[in-house]
Amino acid sequence: MSTAMQRPPAVQPISRYFEKPPQSVLIVNKMRTPPVILAINALLEHIHTAYPGVRVFHEDRPDIPHGAEVWHPSKHQIDLVVTLGGDGTILHASSLFSSGAVPPVLSFSMGTLGFLLPFHIDDFARALESVFHGKATILNRMRLAATFFNQNLAKKKNDNNGQSQFASAPLFLQYSLQPRVNTDWQVMNEIALHRGSSPHLNTIDIYVDGQHLTEAVSDGLIVSTPTGSTAYSLSAGGPIVHPSLSALVLTPICPRSLSFRPLVFPSSSSITLRIGDRSRAPAGVSMDGRTSHVLQPGESVTVQASPYPVPCINRSSISDDELHQKEKEGAGPGKEDDWVRDINNLLQYNATFRSKALLRHSRT
């Protein structure tokens, strides 16, 4: 009983320095278009030349680049993950380490924009130099852990024990006693329950730390991390949360009640979403854009903070002290100023709306 009540270790979402140079690198990339092929070839050549002895791995795919070894998760430990692509590439890299700790992630954009892309591919030599020389800092971006249960609160996956030992307890006590360890799924952005192709709204009971919060009638619900607060949750009207915070964001999708507003919970909270017995529609479950489950009435998912965040390398930590002081404004190296830049540049935060047609005829 005491094991079930344990909380996951607290995640410290603060920047810290690399402790030692990486000895193994995993390359994760989007589809191998000609620009991606050229970038990977240049990256591999630079690593083999500048850092001899470092092993470079790649997923076991038909298009594995020349000079990289096939990565077998059970055999090869990874010290650094290098992604080339968009934000979806980083989410995919996170999914490759869904059962444990994630190595530091160095992300390069390939002409795309995103909140998780601090570096352009043209800067890969300088970024790698900072990593291998211990100058880079990382920000631990929180992940969510999810466990799925059937109507009797038995786990829907990897559970050979049959009925849950808590099934005979009162409903509010059952959800407060659900295990907080040994989860099945870990995601970086969000877990979304939605009505899918059904014309009917979902009816979902929400429990927070075993206490019934409300019965939600809506198109669905989103539980997101601070990183995911600028993704699906934001489009559904959720708040923007700084990624250095540890919090869970609950956002309704088109709720029937106009007073049902988004909520932010501490990362120590456990949120259970149970499909109501009276729900006229099952709920599809999407996690970081991937469909995983369909929950029928009476089934549920429990979401909590994962003890394994995604350590993302900051662009602000790559700048040289002297260069930063002379030519740039804002926080110095090691300070997390990427987020402020992103909400201004990518979201055009608080920018005044002006019609392009009006601008063409403006006299000012």
Compute the number of strand runs. Answer: 20
Query: Which structural category fits the helices and strands?
Result: alpha+beta
Oligomer type: single chain
Q: How far apart, in Å, are the first and last alpha carbons?
A: 71 Å
GO molecular function: NADH kinase activity
Keywords: Kinase, NAD, NADP, Transferase
Family: Belongs to the NAD kinase family.
EC number: 2.7.1.86
3D architecture notes:
- By secondary structure, this protein is α+β, with helices and mostly antiparallel strands.
- Helices cover 18% and strands 29% of the residues.
- The protein has helices at 34-50, 87-95, 124-132, 171-176, 232-235, 321-327, 338-345, 356-360, and strands spanning 16-17, 24-29, 55-58, 69-70, 80-85, 105-109, 119-120, 137-141, 144-149, 185-187, 190-194, 202-208, 211-224, 247-255, 263-266, 270-275, 283-287, 290-295, 300-305, 310-313.
- Strands 9, 10, 11, 12, 13, 14, 15, 16, 17, 18 and 19 form an eleven-stranded antiparallel sheet that branches. Strands 4-3-2-5-6-7 form a six-stranded parallel sheet, sandwiched between helices.
- One of its GO terms (molecular function) is NADH kinase activity.
- Belongs to the NAD kinase family.
